[in-house]
Amino acid sequence: MRNSFSEVKIFQVKPDKLDEFEKMVAIMAEEQKVQEGCIDIKYVKRFFTLDGLGNPPRELTKMVKCVKYFSYWEFDNKENYGKAIEWFFKVYEKDIQKLLIMPFDINCGNSVY
Predict the structure, then answer these.
(1) Per-residue b/e over 1-38, b at no fewer than 16 CB within 10 Å?
(2) Helices 78-97 and 18-33 sit at what angle, rounded to 10 degrees?
(3) Alpha helices, H only, the chain
(4) Are strands 5-13 and 67-75 parallel, antiparallel or unpaired?
(5) Of 59, 55, 20, 27, the residue nearest 41 (C-alpha)
(6) What share of the chain is helix, strand, coil (3-state, %, to 5)?
(7) Separation CA 43–CA 26 (nearest Å)
(8) Fewer Cβ neighbours under 10 Å: the N or C end of the chain?
């Protein structure tokens, strides 16, 4: 959607907390979807890496320090995003931080296309 406002979070999850994090994601995503102005929410677990152009991605075989997850949260405007991110921090920040090796990173801005 053009003129939307989006956020990408990067989570570096402790290797022994993957199941707990994924269970939390299932609950969070359902609640994130119903926030006012939410267009979409997606979570991705990094399973693959590029292994040369033209080749299919190669599956990662070992965990080094953490497993990265990414979320993409899209809104109709930045005002609704502001309300939703306040809700997210109040409800989930403390529980999520316990599962990570460092605080999650947030990148947000207006869509370009």
Answers:
(1) eeebbbbbbebbbbeebbeebeeebeebeeebeebebb
(2) 160
(3) 18-33, 78-97
(4) antiparallel
(5) 27
(6) 35, 35, 30
(7) 9
(8) C
Residue whose entry in the numeric block shows the structure tokens 């605080």: 103
Task: Report how far Cα 111 is from the mean position of its chain's Cα atoms.
Answer: 17
Q: Which residue, 85, 93, 106, is CA-closest to 10?
A: 106
Could you tell me how many residues make up the chain?
113
72 φ/ψ angles, rounded to the nearest 5 degrees? -125, 115
Question: What tokens does 72 get?
Answer: 């993409």
The answer for residues whose C-beta is within 8 angstroms of residue 90's C-beta and 6 or more apart is none
Adjacent-strand bridge partners of 45: 69
pLDDT single digits (tens) 3-39: 899 999 999 999 999 999 999 999 999 999 999 999 9
First to last CA, the chain: 7
pTM of the model: 0.88
